[in-house]
Amino acid sequence: MAENAEILQITTKDFFDKYFDVLMSIAGRTNTELLPENISSFEMLDNRYLLKIRRADTLVYCTGKAFSDCQNKTKKPYKTILVDCYLNDMTNLEVAKKVGYSRSRFGALKQEALAEFTQRFNYWIQNQKFSPLVQLMSQKSNMQKSLGVD
Fold first, then answer.
1. In the prediction, which pLDDT does 133 show?
2. 109, exposed or middle or buried, with CB in 10 Å at 0-12, 13-18, 19+?
3. Taking the model in full, what pTM does it have?
4. Is 96 exposed, middle or buried (0-12, 13-18, 19+ CB in 10 A)?
5. What is the pLDDT of residue 31?
6. Contact in structure between 56 and 26 (CB atoms under 8 Å)
7. Cα–Cα distance, 54 to 123 (Å, whole number)
8. Axis-axis angle for helices 103-126, 92-99 (nearest 10)
9. What local confidence, expressed as pLDDT, does residue 130 receive?
10. Could you give the maximum distance between any two Cα atoms of the chain, in Å?
11. Backbone angles phi, psi at 131, to 5 degrees
12. How far is residue 115's CA from residue 108's CA, in Å, rounded to a whole number?
């Protein structure tokens, strides 16, 4: 990562709510390409594409790798939660039923899944040939909380 470059820090929730679909469109990717069973065949765009498109593609790729790396155990069905919520467009209620948890417990599990995703995404983004200069945060930073900034 460039030493003097400013890093865009956003919450993981904002990443999915505001940017993920836009990045997918810019990169020209489909949800199917990011499924854990398909991510190994994902080919990054080459230099024929504009830098903006390649950076979006890198963010999309890192998202798919992070989904794939998340735990998927009975008590921690993080991969299932993330993939179904953000790639398969299922509602929280549908996913809660699928993984067999109540709505209240599912909410806590989804937060845990997003926290694990955040760590794995940040790992993958650090290991790219150029950095899109984005870092995800699980929650609002202390400064954002203290200033009341959303």
1. 72
2. buried
3. 0.85
4. buried
5. 97
6. yes
7. 18
8. 100
9. 65
10. 48
11. -100, 130
12. 11
As a whole number of angstroms, the distance between CA 148 and CA 150 comes to: 7
Candidates 62, 76, 68; CA nearest to 124 is 62
Total residues found in the chain within this entry: 150
Q: What is the pLDDT of residue 1?
A: 39
Dihedral of CA 88/68/79/77: which sign? positive
Cβ–Cβ < 8 Å for 12, 18: no
Tokens of 113: 């899944």
| Structure-token pair, residue 43 | 């080919």
Decide if 125 contacts 62 (C-beta within 8 A).
yes
Q: Give per-10-residue mean pLDDT for the chain (150 aa).
A: 64 94 96 97 95 93 97 96 97 96 94 96 86 74 41
Rounded to 10°, the helix 78-86/103-126 angle is 90
> What is the predicted pLDDT for the residue at 142?
42
